[in-house]
Amino acid sequence: MRSASGKLYHSLNQKREEGDNVNINIQNTGWIEVICGSMFSGKTEELIKRIRRAEYARQKIMVFKPIIDNRYDHENIVSHSQMQAPSIPISEASEIYEHLTEDVQIVAVDEAQFFDESLIGICNDLADRGIRVIVAGLDQDYKGNPFGCMPQLLAIAEYVTKNLAICLKCGNPANRTQRTIHSSEQILVGSTDSYEARCRNCHEVLD
Ligand SMILES: [Zn+2]
Q: What's the CA-to-centroid distance between 60 and ligand 1, angstroms?
């Protein structure tokens, strides 16, 4: 397994090396970034953007997603805007370790809310080993409650990006996901037409 003495540099440090006068020297350390928000807030798009930037820098990155998420594609993570990146589908968070290679610098996880709480310890462990961990997921379920392991991940993350969508009803900033069909299951995968972004005024929980 990779030691903490890797080749990871914080972007500020890369800037410093390029000649900028930034006196912050963060290196040989991992961290956790969380990208959260409602559906249609561009979380996966933001994740793919960060993956692309890392690829341009020739950093070794591994992307995981839960097998439960079979929308659009089985191997790629795909945003609503059809951006995509190759990924490894797994059913348990612990399977990340089975795929991890010595040289990996970044581990990304999409749709993290579908994993159980073991993902929290695993993200911490990877960051402790010097790996940059990027986690994207829904912070709230369709009732507006914190979703799965996301609240704990938000608490332990160094960096949090909370995206807002636009309320389909009134146009206000939206941080909730409205389910438009009747079902009491927390997870209803597959049809994005069963959901829309809503603000707190327009969000309602259907019975
Ligand atoms: Zn609204």
A: 41
Q: For the chain, first and last CA: distance in Å?
A: 48
Q: Name the token pair of 154.
A: 């938000």
Read off the DSSP letter of residue 75: S
Cα(18) to centroid(ligand 1), Å: 45
Which DSSP string corresponds to 96-128?
HHHH--TT--EEEESSGGGS-THHHHHHHHHHH
Nearest-angstrom CA–CA distance, 34 and 108: 10
The model's pLDDT over 84-121, given as tens digits with 9 standing for 90+, comes to: 788 999 999 999 999 999 999 999 999 999 999 999 99
Active-site annotation holder among 33, 46, 111, 196: 111
pTM for the model stands at: 0.82
> Does any domain span residue 48?
yes
Distance 176 CA to ligand 1 centre (A): 10
- Domain limits at 79? 11-165
What total of structural domains would you count in the chain? 1
Residue that is written with structure tokens 């290679």 in the block = 101
The answer to whether residue 84 is domain-embedded is yes
41 CA from centroid of ligand 1 (Å): 14
Domain of 87: which CATH number? 3.40.50.300
What separation in angstroms does the CA of 62 have from each of 40, 99, 112, 113? 24, 9, 14, 18
Annotation marks residue 111 as catalytic = yes
